[in-house]
Amino acid sequence: MTPRSRGAESGRRGRRYPAGEALQERSAEEWLESMIIRKSREEIARMREAGRIVAGVLDMLEKHVRPGTRTETLNRLADDYIRSRGGIPSFLGYRGFPASICTSVNDVVVHGIPGKERLKEGDIIGIDVGVILDGYQADAARTYAVGEVSETARRLMEVTRASLDAGIAACRAGNRLGDVSNSIQRVVESGGFSVVVQFVGHGIGKEMHEEPQIPNFGPPGRGPLLLPGMTFALEPMVNEGTYEVRVEDDGWTVRTVDGRLSAHFEHTVAVTEGEPEVLTLP
After folding, report:
1. CB 242 within 8 A of CB 233
2. Is the pTM of this model over 0.85?
3. Taking a C-beta distance cutoff of 8 angstroms, is the pair 152, 132 a contact?
4. What span, in angstroms and rounded, lies between the C-alpha atoms of 270 and 261?
5. 4-28: per-residue pLDDT in tens?
6. Cβ atoms of residues 279 and 48 within 8 Å
7. How far apart are CA 106 and CA 262, in angstroms?
8. Which residues sit opposite 88 in a β-bridge?
9. Could you state, in order of their start, the residue ranges of all structural domains in the chain?
């Protein structure tokens, strides 16, 4: 589940800081770095177990993403799967969210609420899943094709997935958070699509949303230094058209303002001494 950005626009526009502000910017980076909770090996192991359940849900649901399926059916199947493995759905009841997963169809970017809607041939659907297991959380999302989809939809999903891979690859100790954000943005924009700026990735651990917020855009070389034990939910949200979105009256459903498609992929990732570790795998 995706938090709203605290200050998206200035970062996306590539704001230039006067030389006199450089020290203030570095001090802010150091302060934020100190706010990021680093996890022990034992804590990461617990998150990995929660992540296995998340991955299992997403694998299982793929078999049910077909024309005629109601999104509320996907929600019920996911809830049953999570609970049967000892987990708790992270999203259900979170700030009043009424379901165990998010189901975001076509122009819905994130936070779609499962209901009576039936999937149709040619739709795409983003499914976001969070699990709490033994007090630790994991969060991941995938966008699926419903039957045969347009070439644009297929390419949008491929580019979004590739941007997530690029962000994961940048989650190395010694890099800065801005390197992750910039890696995602470059893949998206080179593919001809737009990065959503109002909603961002986030730290994760005992809480679903921990520091830091992780924009999917911005200049490299800025932000907190990445250190082993940091755990992040990276989640590019990518629009076919404009980056602008709107929130519906239900307070949750986020749509593209131009009605064009959006895709969403996410993994929970740990920074290690070596290669980044994806924690939301089977």
Report:
1. no
2. yes
3. no
4. 30
5. 887 654 444 333 334 444 445 656 7
6. yes
7. 6
8. 132
9. 24-278
DSSP-assigned letters across all residues of 97-124: --SSEEEEETTEEE-PPP-SPBP-TT-E
- Tokens 């800065």 locate to 176
Using CA atoms, how far apart are residues 103 and 79, in angstroms rounded to an integer? 13
Token reading at 140:
């991941």
Segment 84-102, tens digit of pLDDT = 999 999 999 999 999 999 9
Strands (E), the chain: 88-89, 101-105, 108-110, 124-133, 136-145, 194-195, 201-203, 210-214, 231-234, 237-239, 245-247, 254-256, 262-264, 267-270, 277-278
- Cα 173 from chain centre: 21
Which conformational region is residue 32 in: left (phi greater than 0), alpha (psi within -120 to 50 degrees), or beta? alpha
Pick from 126, 198, 211: which is nearest to 161 by CA? Answer: 126
Is 215 in contact with 196 (CB distance < 8 Å)? no
Tokens 């809480």 belong to residue: 207
Taking the C-alpha atoms of residue 75 and residue 54, their distance in angstroms, rounded to an integer, is 13
Q: What is the DSSP letter of 226?
A: P
| Cβ–Cβ under 8 Å, residues 123 and 96 | no
* Type of residue at 208: M
24-278 sits in which CATH class? alpha beta
